[in-house]
Every structure is written in structure tokens, then in C-alpha cells.
Amino acid sequence: MNAPCSTGDWDTRRHGRLQRLERAAALGLARRVEPGRVGELLEAVIEPGDRVCLEGNNQKQADFLADTLAECSPERLHDLHMVQSVLALPSHVDLFERGIARTLDFSFSGPQAGRLARLVKDRRIEIGAIHTYLELFGRYFVDLTPKVCLIAAHAADAAGNLYTGPNTEDTPAIVEATAFKGGIVIAQVNALVASLPRVDIPADWVDFLVVAPRPHSIEPLFTRDPAQITDVQVLMAMMAIQGIYAEYGVTRLNHGIGFDTAAIELLLPTYATELGLKGKICTHWALNPHPTLIPAIESGCVESIHCFGSEVGMENYVAARSDIFFTGADGSMRSNRAFSQTAGLYACDMFIGSTLQIDLDGNSSTATLDRITGFGGAPNMGSDPHGRRHASPAWLKAGREAGGPNAVRGRKLVVQMVETFREHMTPVFVEELDAWKLRESMGLELPPIMIYGDDVTHIVTEEGIANLLRCRTPHEREQAIRGIAGFTPAGMARDRHMVEQLRNRGVIRRAEDMGIDPRQATRDLLAARSIKDLVRWSGGLYTPPARFRNW
Amino acid sequence: MEILEFRFTSQPARQGVDAKLCGVVGSGNLEILIQPGDDARACLVAVKTSARGFGQIWEAVIAEFANRHAVGGTRIAINDMGATPAVVTLRLGQALCEYIGGVP
Fold it and tell me: Are strands A252-255 and A126-130 parallel, antiparallel or unpaired?
């Protein structure tokens, strides 16, 4: 057989890249660009319609590059397709309001959720999809590969090697996808130094770098002040520890962000240790360096933590605890969101987190009508990956509860922990998620559900724990959820007889069923009751940002 | 300010001797005074609350409390400043434990 002779061009991306670099060179722009000329650089190397990854992470932000891109001329740059994990800064949304960008594929929008919802309503933005982090990173290597990426690092050396410091986060995934598919990598750094503590991104993957006029912004997203934890949260944490952590012997896990899980972290050295659980639960984590975990670490409850990112103020503490955290030869931590998400998805036995709404199938979502927040990491870690995996006692026990003693696979524990009412007496348990209405208003194929009900194994509220693994029919499942939905309308509509039966079978367990004395459920049980307590536990190594200091 | 009064039948509580006070009157919190009542088969509850219009939820929360625990023969006075049902249920449980000197 004669193979057809290929005559086409097979290196258009490489040629395109060289053309872009030549345009920059023609303007006299070399590898190191002065801040005042970055706008020219962007207009030279980005083309209308390009797919651009702007490093907007959960924590650190390429904010100088974002601001500069948002100030570019919409005549020169328009219809960009932004692929970025987090839409966090006002300039990220300005891009769309100014007509520079048109399409967005993202994971999480946090503080810009309200503006994003308005842009969608006014049809000034096309949303491709709301992704999980791993899904978006995956698509960087499949069909959403960036033509140009704008990233942030802590420092560069003269050769252009980058040091990301503890907040490595998304940078390796973004740069790898861009640099190895004919793309252009532009980095903003806080400083140029003679020699780097370590190289996180090698110089030959980086095309341009600029020393930004101010250090890149970074949010202390994972700091929860113990002073704000309530007695009810202490009660829920006691139930979770006794009814789930101890019950399944959960050693490998991820915690969501929030005061509910912060309370659990602060009960590990007290309540959990009194129950004899030290070393038997919560030893290995995929978790950001939560300041509220300091007392547990200092008490010897924790063996290992791999981090998605860092946390402002925790750098020195983390560096001084290199047995626990992943640190470089230089001493500082290297985080990596893609790897930590992988760990949370495949190597952990439990995810526990909070949400804004749960329906009677157990579906949950943080997307509500006027805010399109996206979900970040929860849907990855809060899901049972279902494919084959290694066995562990917690995974096997959960699998057998669901599938009987001969089950051929286990189950990951996916726990939702909520108070039945949010602020202003807004019920968390609802007959229908707002996500369904959002599906219509956003024109989505599917409602933006964060965690699917069939992945959820337990729901913890102040009313008790519903073990959904042990529900045998959809009706039982619904009543188990109503049975811990308290005095919300969904809870009040429960079948009292059936809920009592479920309780007798242990499908629903209330605090008193676990022998919990409600008098113990006070803030006194927390290992730390203030940020200052955390600083003390850390021996002064933790240096909280000013906004968390009231002394 | 709204004043609500309820009476629920309940199994007789283990006899408490003294009145017990639990919680504090602060935003989102409440104070509960529990003491011996006259009718061993009933729990009498008087609520003073700063949040108006939640009578039905109060009734449901206290009915559930009287249903789940033996609280007959008690009189309960509540001063509330907008506590959620979660806080009310927790404080009622704490007050009862204080009153009977143990877990019910």
C-alpha cells in the first residue's frame, strides 16, 4: 500500500510562535520587559481570538499582568478565550466588560461571582463550562491548550529561571501545557535575584519576564479565626469525629474550607485525643496549610500534609516542619494544585466540606441565583472516582455498607457538613436547588451541581448524621435527609415514623445516640480559641496577616 | 419583642432540685432557666424573643425537645436574641443535662 505523501505544514504553531516573538523583537522587547512596556508586549504577542491563560489561582494572582491586559486596546485585542482556574480580581471581569475577552472556561469565581452573573445575564460573556480544577488542567492538555499564558512567580534569576516559593499552585500545569505546545509564557515576578533558592520553572520554558511594580497579590483564603467558631459547630465536629472519623478509621483525607471543618481540626488534640484516636485518624492529608491545624500538628496527631497552595503567614511554620510538609532543599514548601487534587481524588478515603444548598437526593451546590461562584476543588475531592483502586479499611467498610459483605469495590467517604439554616434563617435543605433555575438562565446543558447526591455518603447537621450508604431505597434516602434537616420546611415534612425506624437501624444517629454530652459542646473544647492562641501553639512561627490580628 | 407560651406533655424528667441557668442573652444566643414545675407530665415553656414571627418554629423546636427527652415536671423560661433552631436545641439539651445532673 502506498502511504499518501503528506505535503501539509506540521509546525504552524511553532511558526506562529516565532512570528509573535519576532513582532516583540521588532519593538525592541527582549526577554526582560520593563513594566511600562508590558502592554505593548501583550498586544504584540497575543492575537484576537487567542486562548489565553491568566494565572488566577485560588491564592496567588498574576495581578499586574491581568491589570495590563485589561488596559489593552479592544481594537487590537478582542474575542480572547480565557482559560483560568479562578476569576478573582476585578480586572478579570473588566476583560469581558471592555470587550477584550469573550469566552470563559473556569473553575471558581469567588469574589467576582455577582459581577459574573450580571455579565451572563447581559450576554456579554460566553461561559464554556464551570470545571473542577483537575478537569480544567486536563483540558489544558487536550482541547483548551493556551496560546499565551500570563503567570506569577516569586523571583527570577538573570537567566530567567523562576522561583515560585511556597505558592507554586497552578504554575507548573499552566506552563507545561503552554510551553510544550508552541505557546508563549510571560511571567511577572516580585524580584530579580542573583541566585534563586531553587528552580521551580526552568528558564527555557519562559519567554518574557517582568519585575512587577508591586508583589503579586495573594489571599489568605484558608485562615479561619477560631474566635468565630460556635458551640453548635463544636457539637457537629464532635459528632463527625465520633460517628464518622472514628467509625471508619479515616486516616487519609481532605477538609474543605470553613468553620465547620476548622472546628474538627481544633478538636483533634482535645476531644479526639481523649477518645484515644490520636494516630488512628487524620494522619495523612491533602490540605492547604490551615492555621487551625497547627495545634493538631504540634500535638503529634498529623504525619504528612501535601498542599494545593500555601497560606499567608504560614511560610515560616511550614518551613520549620519539613517532616510534615513537602519542602525543597532550600527549606521552603513547594505546593502543587494539580498533584494535591490528584491526591485528594485518588489517595484519600474521605472528603468533608460544606455547601449552601442540599436537595432531597443529596445533590449539593454553592451556585445560587445571583451568584455564579463555581466550585474549585470540592467536586474532585468530593467524588468517588469509582475506577479500580487500592483497598483501605475505611474505603472497604464504606463499600460493604453500601453493597453488602461481598462488595467487590469500596466507597470513598464523601461527607457534607452543614447547619440546617444559614444566615437570615435561609434553609440549606431545599426541595429544589437554585442550580436548576441557573441552568436555564445560563443556558447550560446541566444544572451546576457541585457534588452529586449519589457520591455523598454522609450528611452531618446539628440534628445528627445521616448515613446514606445504608439507605436501601430512594425513599429511605429522602427520609434520612429530611430526618437530619431539622426545622427547615424540608425537615418538618419528614415521615416521623420512618425517620424513627431509620434511627433504630442506625441510618440516622443523633448526638445522644453517640453518647455525646451536650454540655461538652462548648468553645472550651477547642484547642485554640483565637488567632493569638494559634500563634502561641506555633511557638511564634505563624505570623498572621494584619487583618487577623486584634492585639 | 414577642412572648410565646407552650405546654407539652412529656415523660416525667428525673427530678432536678435546683433551678439551672444555661446560655447568655447575646446576639444569636439565648438564656434558658429550667426549674421544677407543678405538673409531672407537662413541660411549660415561656419564650421572650427579640425576633418576631417565628412562633411556629419555636413550637416545633420545643415540641421535638419534649418528644425526644423526658422533660415532664419542668418549667422553662427562655430569653432569646435571635438564636437559630440549632442553638435553641443545643441550649435546651445543655440545660436539661445540668438540671438532671447527667445525660438523659
Answer: unpaired
